[in-house]
Specification:
By secondary structure, the chain is of the alpha/beta class. It contains 16 helices and 9 strands.
């Protein structure tokens, strides 16, 4: 199969390669459905021992989803956006519950929808090219695709820091935090995949191809992150950063001030509630409700205008966020409109 998704079988390995290089392999609804179909086919194939997901060309693993489409849909009835989220979250859940070992090659940009593909996988390989982020608060969205499940389960306040600021991590940092399970130089990736063709022991094969990662830079700021991002409200977090007054704190405060206030409030509550979710499906059900409503908001449509369409990088965010507005976004979908895993 060729096109935006390339599906192949090589020895005992199922291959799914993202193939939309001009858009850094950003996902469309059709791509999500094709990945789900390939996963279902591979899962029922007794000759296959594992599945690898990577990209076929270009410099990114996956930069996210089709943001322009979501904004256009949000200006209308939102049906196309809901269809995308429904397909994407089903694919995320399918990977999370998959019965065979899965390997994500996180070589390049891993953002948004790319995080949703990588983190459910059994094995996640970072390289020197890895650039991992959940930058949604800068565009008027929230860290979806399971962000409410993964981020609050990171050590200390790191998940909150990543969700609110959109900070980028390199491959070494991903390995340290457990976002990646292995680190290897990019030149070794193809040899590792070749070795998996005939090897049923995925962990041992990946370990043999791995190398020690460089020092992770985030270690230097862990104390600041855990101390200054411990607050339960955005206002309190900003006050803590301002009161600290150090260079790092002031840089992060300046970053927060560029983000959508609505997105910050939604993301903070999402992580708090996600930490207590009983299972991944429950998290995806809530994120579907949030996403279905966020695409209609002023901040998302304005964020896409400023960062994607006009590219003036000067979004005019809605300044005030009410409790009622946040509650309405988190409300369950009406009966018959909820997200379902199958």
């Amino acid at each position: 199969m060729s096109g935006e998704i390339i599906v192949d079988k090589q020895g005992r390995l199922g291959r799914i390669r993202l193939n939309r290089p001009t858009a850094l392999h950003a996902l469309t609804t059709a791509m999500c459905l094709a990945i789900s179909d390939a996963l279902a086919e591979f899962e029922g194939d007794d000759d296959l021992a594992a599945v690898v997901v990577d990209h076929a060309a270009g410099r990114g693993f996956c930069a996210g989803g089709d943001i322009r489409m979501l904004a256009q849909s949000g200006r209308g009835d939102g049906s196309e956006a809901r269809a995308f989220f429904h397909a994407e979250y089903r694919m995320n859940h399918q990977l999370f519950t998959y019965s065979k070992p899965t390997v994500a090659i996180m070589d390049g940009v891993v953002m948004g929808g790319g995080v949703g593909i990588a983190l459910p996988c059994s094995f996640r390989v970072a390289t020197e090219n890895t650039r991992f982020a959940m930058p949604e608060t800068g565009i008027g969205l929230f860290p979806d695709v399971g962000g409410g499940w993964y981020l609050p389960r990171l050590p200390g306040q790191v998940g909150k820091f990543l969700a609110l600021t959109g900070a980028r991590l390199d491959g070494s940092e991903c390995l340290l935090l457990g976002l990646a399970t292995h680190y290897m130089v990019a030149e070794a990736v193809l040899a590792a995949i070749d070795a998996l063709h005939d090897s049923p022991d995925v962990a041992r094969t990946l370990e043999a191809c791995s190398t020690p990662a460089p020092n992770a830079r985030i270690i230097e700021n862990r104390a600041n992150i855990d101390r200054l991002f411990a607050a339960d409200t955005i206002a309190a977090a900003m006050t803590a950063l301002e009161s600290d007054g150090g260079d790092w704190a002031m840089n992060e405060l300046a970053t927060l001030r560029t983000k959508s206030p609505l997105s910050l409030a939604i993301s903070l509550r999402q992580l708090r509630e996600g930490a207590a979710m009983p299972d991944f499906a429950s998290e995806m059900r809530q994120e579907y409700a949030i996403g279905s409503r966020m695409v209609h908001t002023h901040d998302f449509i304005e964020g896409v205008r400023a960062l994607i369409v006009d590219k003036d990088n000067m979004p005019r965010w809605q300044p005030a966020v009410s409790v009622n507005e946040v509650d309405a976004i988190f409300a369950p979908m009406p009966p018959g409109e909820e997200w379902t895993a199958s």
